Amino acid sequence: MTMYVALNENNNLVQIENVERGLACKCTCFECGETVIARKGDIKEHHFAHASNKESCNINPESVLHKYAKEVILESMGLMLPAVPNTEDNEAAWWTFDKIIPEFHLGLIRPDLACYYNDEPVFIEIAVTHFIDENKLKIIESMNVNTLEIDLSSLLQTELVIPSEQAKKLILESLDHKSWLYPQAPKVIKNGVEGKISKNPLEATEQLATNTTPNVSSWEDYQFTINGIWVRARKFSSGMLSVSCIYNPEIIAMLKQWRNEGGGRFDQRYRSWNYWQPFSATVLERLELMHAPNDIKHH
To answer: Domain boundaries in the chain?
Structure first.
């Protein structure tokens, strides 16, 4: 099997096209850990090969995707999450974690990522071919820890390149494949039959039409690059603007200064700075003027 991915000296996934030629790539095999060479000639297709000249390893795409998902969440120290069921939350939000520990043993279970938000644990399970079984879910319920599952199984049927910026964006920002295992989503009653809201778009639309829960505010999302850092903003129909970013002292100081200037507050739960009308429009204009899409810092 041709090897197109390997691990760099930081143990992160890299594509053959994104490394230097030969041993200068400083990479190891994803499967066996042996030193590999980046073969990037003019005739054959670019690929990695073992420095020992042994046959290429059979790289499992499920394992690659699973590792990459953990990698990008750790790198970003957060991701977009749907509203937590059975709480006051009614909107999806970007969660920035204080700490993330991968593959951490907690008694009888080992979550893929043990994240800490305001000193409270949040488990994240990444499902590609293996999903949480009933026994593990019961243990999580007994621990009373919010647990999210990211179902990436459908990506195996696509031509999405791993690693890539497109895959990273999907893992971090898309909500379609994320669901809370605990607490679970509330059940609905349809035609006298109790069940969870369907994931099928047509069925879900029909079920939600029978739900008497009031509609939540609509919003519009923005993403800016300021001083090489991603800054996200959400403009609500009420006029409020919520701004968040990966921790950066300069940007945080700027957002704090704007709060003092035009009014607003810091939302501790979502780690976001909220501004209200009319000053929220000024904040959005400033972010748009500061946006430099080509100035991206690589970590």
So the answer is: 5-59, 64-200, 219-290
